[in-house]
Design brief:
30% strand; 6 helices; 38% helix; five-stranded mixed beta sheet; Rossmann fold; alpha+beta; single chain; disordered N terminus
Length: 164
């Protein structure tokens, strides 16, 4: 009661703690499903390019960090196919970081990336969006970039045929 009278809401404190523990989370929205049949023909997955189509609203450091994280996450992905690599092209279409005050007021840190997977011969293999959001105060641009890359890798690993 004393906390409530002082303006402190214990439920908000618990929620804030949970958000800090959770950090940045990625969700994938499929536009054109990457099927294992298409990925069975490729030998590996490589990053072609990462760009932003919203100009100065996205710091270049964020684009570079996203490309670096994506290369790291996809570096070991191999398939049993005899074809060339599948190429990942990504475009950051939305970016928002609120800073501490805006995050405390309820604004999420968020990024959306449009991903296209093409064969080395140019045929479209799939297309999807990765949406990353975080209400954690501690979330940095590097963590947002890492979550984008993990979202891409998780989706592709689930779609890629197993090679034993």
């Amino acid at each position: 009661m004393a906390l409530a009278a002082a303006g402190c809401n214990p439920v908000s404190g618990v929620k804030r703690g949970f958000q800090e523990l959770k950090g940045a989370e990625a969700k994938v929205a499929v536009i054109d499903d990457v099927g294992s049949g298409e990925l069975a023909a490729v030998s590996a997955v490589r990053v072609d390019r990462v760009v932003s189509d919203i100009g100065p609203l996205v710091p270049q450091e964020f684009v570079v960090a996203t490309a670096s994280q994506l290369r790291t996450e996809l570096s070991g992905m191999r398939s049993g196919g005899a074809g060339g690599p599948a190429l990942v092209s990504a475009k950051i279409t939305y970016y928002q970081t609120g800073g501490t005050v805006r995050t405390l007021l309820g604004n999420e840190k968020m990024a959306i990336m449009h991903v296209s997977i093409v064969s080395d011969k140019g045929g479209q293999l799939g297309e999807f969006l990765v949406v990353v959001s975080s209400e954690a105060l501690r979330t940095t641009d590097n963590e947002l970039a890492s979550a984008l890359a993990r979202g891409v890798a998780k989706y592709l690993k689930a779609a890629m045929p197993r090679t034993e």
